[in-house]
Write a structure and sequence with these properties.
Layout (H helix, E strand, L loop, with lengths): L1 E5 L8 H14 L2 E6 L1 H10 L7 E5 L21 H10 L5 E4 L3 H12 L9 E6 L6 E4 L9 H17 L7 E5 L10 H10 L5 E6 L11 E3 L2 H26 L3 H20 L7 E5 L5 E4 L5 H16 L2 H12 L1
Parallel strand pairs: 1-2, 1-4, 2-3, 4-11, 6-9, 7-8, 7-9
Antiparallel strand pairs: 5-6, 5-10, 10-11
Helix pairs in contact: 1-9, 3-4, 5-6, 5-10
């Protein structure tokens, strides 16, 4: 299994990308292709005493920044680390592509270079998130700000297959993000999507309000990309505020610090449960080969876990599962 890594995507590139890739080599028994400026990669390794293992470097001098236009991956920056990585994936030089770079550019590259699975109307960004019960999947998290009802219907189908095949959920519950549970609630788009999803071949349980998402009442939460991205970012922000507030409570004085020792293991477990780094990034569901969008601020552990998602995807042949399910729909 060979994973292509965009060595210059993200805020902490290339050091954390290289470190994360080497952690993945050891943990998942894989090979890596690092794409980026070869001189800078070698210098980074030398400066930080990193020995590359089972790794090939493919030179790419240019970089797509977070401020570049998403479509620059196709023309203006066609020789960037991201664009070259997508081409390597398309040519079969690697089995999956992982980047912590510009989300829009990753989406454009996945859609127009890697291309969609036959029958998929729009690929979507699917993020595994924590809940009070168990991990849940939110999609779309930013690939499609504007959607049609049939897009949301397919997001439910692909999300259900992800949870069934990757996380091994039995008959995952799919819900539609809305401002109320009643079928009559929501925008015209949501009402139309609800009507389609009622007759879906997956376990559609109706609408879910934002406040119920963290409780894990649904295994898959479907939303348009604009709404999904707001849910995701709010979720991450609230989790961070809560953890910082809990820490502040215990750091007030000597007595509170001492009492912390008695609950430390429980707090550590809770912190791990709600830590986005445990999931690493998001999968682009609906494209022909696995593409993983790692968090832009990914450190080594986060990027390693993003690679883990690519490994899971490949081990479970999810692309074939989606294609087969859509062929039955036609």
């Amino acid at each position: 299994m060979k994973i292509i890594a965009d060595a210059f995507g993200g805020d902490n590139a290339p050091l954390e990308i290289i470190k994360g890739s080497m952690l993945a080599v050891d943990e998942y028994n894989i090979d890596i292709i690092l794409v980026g400026d070869k001189e800078k990669i070698n210098k980074c390794c030398a400066d930080n005493n990193i020995t590359l293992k089972r790794t090939e470097i493919v030179n790419a001098k240019d970089v797509i920044t977070m401020h570049d236009n998403a479509r620059s991956v196709l023309k203006e920056k066609a020789e960037s680390s991201m664009a070259v990585g997508f081409r390597l994936l398309n040519e079969g030089k690697g089995d999956a592509f992982v980047s912590a770079g510009n989300t829009g550019a990753v989406t454009v590259g996945a859609t127009l270079i890697t291309k969609r699975i036959k029958g998929v109307k729009r690929p979507a960004i699917a993020s595994v998130m924590p809940s009070a019960k168990k991990p849940i999947l939110l999609m779309d998290c930013g690939a499609n700000a504007e959607c049609r009802a049939e897009f949301l219907y397919q997001f439910g189908l692909m999300g259900s297959l992800y949870m069934k095949n990757i996380l091994k959920y039995d008959n995952p519950k799919v819900a539609l993000a809305n401002n109320g549970e009643e079928e009559s609630k929501g925008t015209p788009l949501i009402k139309e999507a609800y009507a389609l999803m009622k007759d879906a071949p997956y376990n559609f349980i109706g609408n879910i309000e934002g406040r119920q998402i963290p409780f894990g009442d649904a295994d898959v939460v479907v939303a348009d990309g604009f709404t999904g991205n707001l849910i995701l970012k709010t979720y991450e922000g609230v989790a961070k505020v809560l953890m910082n507030s809990i820490k502040a409570v215990f750091m007030k004085n000597a007595v509170s610090k001492l009492s912390y020792l008695g609950v430390k293991s429980g707090i550590d477990d809770m912190k791990k449960q709600f830590d986005y780094k445990e999931y690493g990034g998001a999968v682009l569901l609906g494209v022909k080969k696995p593409v993983i969008k790692a968090h832009g601020s990914a450190d080594a552990r986060t990027f390693k876990n993003a690679i883990k998602q690519a490994v899971w995807f490949l081990e479970n042949s999810l692309t074939d599962e989606i294609e087969n399910a859509l062929s039955e729909e036609i």
